[in-house]
TrEMBL record:
GO molecular function, a single term: thioredoxin peroxidase activity
Protein's name in the database: Thioredoxin peroxidase
Keyword Oxidoreductase attached: yes
Chaperone recorded as keyword: no
Principal location: cytoplasm
The organism of origin for this protein: Lutibacter profundi
Length: 210
């Protein structure tokens, strides 16, 4: 798997559904550079089982992300029409009505491929026929992108393993803390804890207190 941390987030321009109802052409992350942080997360499929639990979990924390100047963006390999249909379906019927952050349609699978979260791949068999191994859908990848468009954190879960949204928030807090204070964030750091000066003396002082 590609490690994108420290690198420019791969660019894309694709169809998306925003605010739960509006189709947007040529949706891109470039609009946020210099202005907002981005949490870009991939999920496997619309109309499934683990995926709506994640999408609602992110929606429930949307105000917390916005308070931190973070734009949430979801991506799957379904079409924008599939996204829209799922967004119109009530939660009681298995839908995701009420989700308002953008959901991007990676219909040609290039976004998932460029972020290296595409499960399965294409190959040519002995008869020179194009084949696919596995389902060409996205793993549960998550990327924290800073205001310069640089990936600062990434995590990828296998298909049945749902994510912890509070951990995504913690990583935003950690990044913003280091940017503001110039200190590192030690193991199990959270926003109410002190940072760590990245020197031998700083480490010794921190460990002596904990």
């Amino acid at each position: 798997m590609a490690v994108l941390v420290g690198k420019k987030a791969p660019k894309f321009s694709a169809q998306a559904v925003v605010n739960g109802v509006e189709f947007v052409e040529n949706y891109s992350l470039e609009q946020f550079e210099g202005n907002k942080y981005v949490i870009l997360f991939f999920y496997p499929k619309d109309f499934t089982f683990v995926c709506p639990t994640e999408l609602f979990a992110f929606q429930e924390k949307l105000a917390e992300f916005e308070k931190r100047n973070v734009q949430l963006v979801a991506v799957s390999t379904d079409t924008e029409q599939s996204h829209w249909g799922w967004l119109q379906m009530p939660k009681s019927q298995g839908g995701i009505q009420g989700v308002t952050y953008p959901i991007v349609a990676d219909t040609n699978k290039t976004i998932s491929k460029n972020y290296d979260v595409l499960a399965g791949d294409y190959y040519y068999d002995d008869n020179d026929q194009l084949q696919a191994s596995g389902e060409l859908i996205a793993y549960r990848g998550l990327f924290l992108i800073d205001k310069d468009g640089i990936v600062r954190h990434q995590v990828v879960n296998d298909l049945p393993l749902g994510r912890n949204v509070d951990e995504a928030l913690r990583m935003v807090d950690a990044l913003q803390f280091t940017e503001e204070h110039g200190e590192a964030c030690p193991a199990n750091w959270s926003s109410e804890k002190e940072g760590l000066k990245a020197t031998h003396e700083g480490v010794a002082d921190y460990l002596s207190k904990h």
